[in-house]
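User: For my dataset I need records formatted as: sequence, then structure tokens, nothing else. Please produce one.
Assistant:
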Amino acid sequence: MNRKQNKGLYIQLYSIHGLIRGNNLELGRDADTGGQTKYVLELAKTLSEDERVERVELVTREIKDKNVSSDYSVPEEKINNKFSIIRIRCGGGKYIRKELLWNHLNEFVDKSIKYIKSVKRLPDIIHSHYADAGYVCTELTQFFGIPFVHTGHSLGRDKLRKLLSDGTAEEDIEKRYKLNHRIEVEENIIYLANLIITSTKQEIQNQYGDYKNSSEEKFRVIPPGVDIERFYSYNERIPLDEENAELVNTISTKLLNFFVQIDKPLILTVCRPDKRKNISGLITAYGEDKELQKKANLAIFAGIRTDIQTMPDNEREVLTEILLLMDKYNLYGKMAIPKRHDTQTEVPELYRIAADTKGVFVNAALTEPFGLTLIEAAACGVPVVATDDGGPRDIIKNCQNGLLVDVTETKNISEAINKIIDDQNLWIQFSENGMRNVREHYTWKAHVEDYIEEIGHIAGTRKDEEKVFAPVGRKLLDAEKIIVSDIDHTLLGDNSALEEFINILEKIDSKVGFAVATGRTVDSAFSVLKENNVPYPDIIISSVGAEIYYNYHGRLINSTGWDAHIKHQWNREKIKKLLALFDFLQYQEESTQRKFKISYYTSDVPENIKKVKSTLVKNKIKANVIFSHGQYLDILPYRASKGKAIRYLAYRWNIPYENILVAGDSGNDSEMLKGDLLGVVVANYSPELEELKGQNRIYFAKRNYAGGIIDGIRHYNFLKITRNEQ
């Protein structure tokens, strides 16, 4: 990597849903607080210990809810001198399950950008975990061009297939899980990500293979690791020191509340109370094997619970089934199901207790993308019985520490457990293999070595914008506010109102900048502004956001930084060739065409616009399709638009969104009017903007043209306008 001396990587990891904190993770509290939170935290901690990394931030949602710990409401939790958890507020303070977060993610995007601006440094890499964070990072990479890495943890198409095979109605699936939207987002993530990290090859072939945007060269298999300082061998803490003895005594006391005989081999499982974990299959296997009951106890640590009746449907149904099966097979005195456990200290010791008793760890999940618990068990020295699916196949192949079984036949589970417990030589072989091989294949240090090597290929360096802007540059560095206006039908159209607005511009404070954002080419924009005696703007965003120019004493200087940002994966000739097939599109005059903009005339037929977008997607073309004024269709690079150009400028010149007033009248202004900017829609607006009514920070003016801009300035109290200036 070509990096500046003594300056390491700045990495942001995004994991938005779930309760996550630096210590004592509440794993299994609910469906959103599972292996992902542990994975991300371990990755962040290990990255922060690497000398090539300068700074690591885990960006998540701030939650202020009386039903959860106050730990999750701390805006910044410093874990060590290089690693912090950053919490960003969106969707209020209440804890919200991931399926209900989609409508709040644009707020998370805007506030993430604000945070990045406050740091005054772009991360070298952003890495999203799960689809919700993936959506946020697709927006950030388009705004700033930051290299983007993604880890899915699970995928929508795979989940949809399983739910349908279980007999769940498609309507019910969509209502609860919003899978159609999630799958659409995942397609976009795959399209825009520079690198996708998976835990197994099967994940690439059998899960990502279902997606049309899947491209093999984007994927790298980097298995997660295990913290060997916590998950160490059972025979390393013999004899027990005082701390270990107290912990073992605490756990033993919990188990004694359930077991008549505690000294038998322990069959252990640790997982969330989820139907896919197939806890019922394990209990059935144990319950139907009387001989196994005589020689071993069964302990099920299925998350954290207080009152089963108040839990979400999935968890409540699973826990109720566990208790009913316990009663059906009369497993009292042989089966334990404690209500809670400490993931930081008790879970590692549970594995070691199982090993002490010459027991077995079981993962009976119907499907298992990876299986972190299997490598934890291996590190502690307890043999495993695992589902013959996904990650366990790779783990057992690498570690040689247990047996794979078809868990849909419960007898297979009990036979495998019996085989290991009954053959002490086999038990010792599996135990020693696991402890040795997990350190070779599954440590976080090894994971981070591969991780940094991979991101090194995409991080690179950035060139700063050429420092040639002199007076305008100094002005923008000092600027506290900016007024941005469209030209045609917004700024121009009423000479009297325009004169009124020009009078205001000539008297405003030097710390207030003026910019225009237009569909016109830069030459056309500059010419029409001069013709109408409008003071030269500090910045011209032209060609619907495809170009940015700075005004240096009347000489226009192209923003090479913006060009470099938007040119990524732009294929002008391929787009022209594809769209030439549509007879409802008429290629506009060459004078309107630009390097980063292709323009057509067309009619106001929504189906035709959909056809254009669909054709581009099917041909793996990344582009921004903008329809305006009922007749103009513009195709831009996917990173280009008026709105993205303004946000780029806001970042570069460190101007808060609430200090930027934008005014427009048509569909190609829509994106810049949305979000945290102060939007003004002039009264003579096109019908395309009708959908913006009622949205936050969008003011519909009473006056037309430049008069509407003045109305907006007054509405937001943006400038101090005297009576003489109005």
